[in-house]
């Protein structure tokens, strides 16, 4: 194989990773609903 094969693939991986992290940073975070429990546990 070529000498630069691993380096090329590592460089491509790093580019994809940074693009993914940039996209991930701008995604809206899902909000979970807080279910309120009744004060009286017997209900």
Quick tags:
single chain; 43 residues; mainly alpha
Mean pLDDT: 84
Number of helices: 1
What's the count of strands? 0
The ordered string of helix (H) and strand (E) elements is H
| Strand residue percentage | under 5%
* Uncertain spans: none
Look at the helices and sheets and give the structural class. Answer: mainly alpha
Characterize the main sheet: none
Helix content: 40-55%
Descriptive account of the structure:
This protein has 43 residues and is mostly helical. 49% of the residues lie in helices and 0% in strands. It is built from one helix and no strands. The longest helix is centred in the middle third of the chain and has 21 residues, at 5-25. The chain starts with a helix and ends in an 18-residue tail after the last helix.
């Amino acid at each position: 194989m070529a000498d630069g094969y691993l380096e090329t693939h590592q460089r491509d991986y790093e580019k994809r990773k940074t693009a993914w992290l940039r996209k991930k940073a701008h995604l809206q975070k899902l909000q979970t609903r807080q279910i309120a429990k009744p004060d009286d546990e017997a209900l």
